[in-house]
Structure formats: C-alpha cells, structure tokens
Design goal:
With 289 residues, the protein is an alpha+beta fold. The protein contains 4 helices and 17 strands. Helix 1 packs across helix 4. It binds zinc ion. Zinc ion binds next to helix 1. This is Metal-dependent hydrolase.
Length: 289
C-alpha cells in the first residue's frame, strides 16, 4: 500500500449514490477485501466518531456484480505502510500525514487500475439520511427544551444561540434507518459547567412533548438542508447547515442528509433517564414523506 498518496474523493456529501472510478488498491481486511477507488459515492463508517453506518451496495467490474457488504474508513501513512481501518488507526481523523480512504468491503479482490461502477443501495441510504437529519434537528430541539436548566451561561451555544447541551453532554450517537439513538452523560463535569438536573425525571414527559412539537414545526417549515463541502477529500471538515425559521443552524458533520426538512413527515422522541440519573438516552424515530 506504499503508493497511496491521495485521500479518496467523496461525492456522498452532495447526495450522490452512484459513480464510476478506477481501482487504486485492494488489500485484505476484516470480512474480505478492501477495495479503494479514486472517487466514490459510498459513505464509510467514521473511525473517530462512528455515528452513521457504512453504505452497502454493489460494485460492477467486467460483467461481474459484486456486493459491497460494508464500507469503512481506512488510512495509510503518506510515508508508506499498511492499510489500517477503524479503531486500528492510531491518529485523529484528518491527520495530514496520512491518506484517508473509503474502503469498500468485498468478498473478492478487484485488480488495480480497473474501471468500476459503484452503486449505493439507495433505499437504505435515504433512510440513514433521514435518520441523520432528524438526529441533528432533535439535538437543536433538545437544547431548546433544556435551555432553562442552565444556571449560568453555558460554555458553548448552538447555531440558534441556545446552551449546547447536545455537544457538551453527548457520548455516543448511532444513526439507524429512519432514526437515531443519542446518549448523553449528565455527570459532575456537566453540572460544573452550569447544568442542573434537579427534577429532570419528573419533567421528561414535558421535555418530550416540547421536542416533538418543535420537530413538527421544523418539518412543516420545509427548511433547506445543506452540507458545506470545503473539498472532495474524505477527511475535509464538512458542516451541516439548516436554514430554520429561527436562524441558520450548523454542526460539523461527516454524514449524509435529506435536502429539506419537509422530506420528513413525522418525528418523535423517546427519552430514557438511567436509574442513577446520570445517563439520558434519546431515541428519535422519523417517517419520510
Ligand atoms: Zn452529523
């Protein structure tokens, strides 16, 4: 793998689900062969913040239709070395001394330099995009519903100017088809930052209702959703933006999204506070129009 000097160019941030490209390398990985191309529409699971699962689909080469069973992030040092994937990558996402690669996991090898056609399974992609868009909207609605629980100015605010409970407390986010599961830690450090959890359990129903109502309003507003793409490089710092009636919200995001909030038809959350009260899990479920 010593000859890889460029990160994979990606087209999924602008919503592409198919493309044509040249094979740069293929190497054994967990579950089969990892095939790397110059440019791809496939979204890989991120190694640093594994929120949205990798795309599945097919890779067509020379009359053959090969199933892409999974898609993960890989990295190779620019100075040369083996292909590493997922948690084996020892550096932070985007480290400039490494090439950042979309690794399509196939059952067999495809020779280098071959031209291939790439097709993402579009129904699953759309369901994941819906789940991811809903996840970010939920975060903003939750910030608003919890805003009065900050006893002093929070150390950071979200794009709508509210205390950013989401970014200050989140420990994991899992995007699923038509939804997401987000886990928040309400511990000592969050309390030190000014958040009060007093009486939170008794207020869960009210918080749920206000998040649901806000989501319904944002769906009705049919707000445009964009991804700011500074470059085609997989490791580029992309930003999700949504022009909501209250203002433009933005969040760093490596995933895929719907183009408008009106593509969702219904969104609901379920909040679960752990017995000890220090973990809040928010399950978001959506339907698409
Ligand atoms: Zn995101």
């Amino acid at each position: 793998m010593g000859d890889i000097k460029e990160s994979t160019a990606v087209t999924f941030p602008v919503g592409e689900v198919s493309g044509r490209s040249r094979v740069v390398a293929a190497a054994p990985v967990d579950g089969g062969y990892g095939v790397i191309v110059v440019e791809t529409p496939f979204h890989p699971l991120d190694a640093t913040w594994p929120d949205q699962p990798g795309d599945t689909g097919v890779l067509r080469w020379d009359e053959l239709e090969l199933r892409v069973a999974d898609c993960v992030t890989g990295a190779v040092p620019l100075s040369g070395g083996a292909l590493l994937t997922g948690e084996d990558i020892p550096v932070r996402r985007g480290d400039p001394d490494w090439a950042w690669l979309v690794v399509h996991v196939l059952e067999r090898r495809v020779p280098e330099d071959e031209l291939v056609e790439l097709d993402v399974e579009p129904v699953r992609r759309r369901a994941l995009s819906a789940g991811h868009t809903a996840c970010h909207l939920m975060a903003l609605a939750l910030n608003e519903a919890l805003a009065e629980r900050w006893r002093r100015d929070a150390p950071r605010t979200d794009g709508l100017g509210r205390p950013d409970f989401d970014q200050l407390a989140i420990t994991a986010s899992r995007i699923v088809p038509d939804g997401s599961v987000d886990t928040y830690r309400i511990g000592k450090s969050l309390r030190k930052k000014g958040f009060t959890a007093d009486g939170l359990r008794e207020e869960l129903d009210g918080i749920t209702a206000s998040v649901d109502a806000r989501l319904a309003g944002w769906i009705a507003a049919d707000a445009p959703v964009r991804i700011g793409v500074p470059s085609a490089d997989l490791a580029a710092r992309r930003v999700w933006r949504c022009d909501l009636p209250e203002g433009t919200a933005s969040l760093p995001c490596g995933g895929t999204h719907l183009r408008r909030t009106g593509e969702l038809s219904d969104a609901r959350v379920r909040l679960e506070l752990s017995e000890s009260g220090d973990e809040l899990v928010v399950e978001t479920r959506v339907e698409t129009a």
